Amino acid sequence: GPSARIFLLSKIFIEQKLLALGYDYFYGGIVSKRSIYDPYAKMLGEHFKDIFIDFKYRDTDYILAPEYTLRVYEYLSRNTFPANYKKVFYSQEMARNESSTDVKDGKTFSFWQIGYEIFGNDDSALSVESITTLWECLHSFPLDGLRLRISDKRILQALCEEYSISDMELHRVPSLLESCNEDGNTFYNLYVQGGGSREFAGILAHLLCLADKNMFTPTVIQDMLKHDLALEAARNLDAICSELRKLCRNSDIVLVPTMPKTWNAYTTVVYDARVNNYDRAVAGGGNLFVDKTNPDLVHSGAGIGVTRIAEYLLATGKDVDASMRLE
Q: What is the pTM of this model?
């Protein structure tokens, strides 16, 4: 019916766009060996394994694929990174054992995601290419208020070091930010009520309020945060945004001080795609260093929620034109 048509056209358009941008296609199926993920447990986050749907077959542990970045990386690593595999994308149904609370909040047991991975040795250049790819995949859709939010994890790391915030205390920050929808004043009240540092909460709340007014810039970072990590982040974001504004609509690029939901694996730049009247990101990604034996190898990529895009289009009564242009 109409719902399936919108889903299918959305999926096909993004796939064709990535092929047109020179990405190779990777297919691996919905079943993964659990051994692919076990070595990366700490990097993925302490609760990542909670979403595994696992089973055993002929004495081998398997899971239904919860994501595909590591599937792609494991294949390329096993094949010593073929020279022609610098830009790869996948299009696959995923399955996750989400908690009942998360399901009530809108998450689904299964969903379709299209993701892409880029490999190279220049963190900033890969960021520009990866974020531009995301914009190319999304800007032709009738998505009201499309904006790509960009941050650098070193901003929050610098704040935590400057105000002596422990790793345990740092774990509270993303969950509080998510619960208050990244509202600076609400975050401040919740964090301080929980016994957190007023100084730390105050500066982060101020940065969040600036971002809400689209006034958070690399200059703000340089003026307010003197930590070396923050200054590195400011220089990086300034260079990235300068390039992005030549390639994308200026109004579609927004800087934020931090993002509440990112993989532990992300190291520098993180980003997502948001639209008006929809409280979840329709895409998200970032940069990773995943090969300890090759520290110069940088990996950037994003996952695009085809299911979420279709859900948004159906909820807002928008259609997808079968003739959407790929240029």
A: 0.89
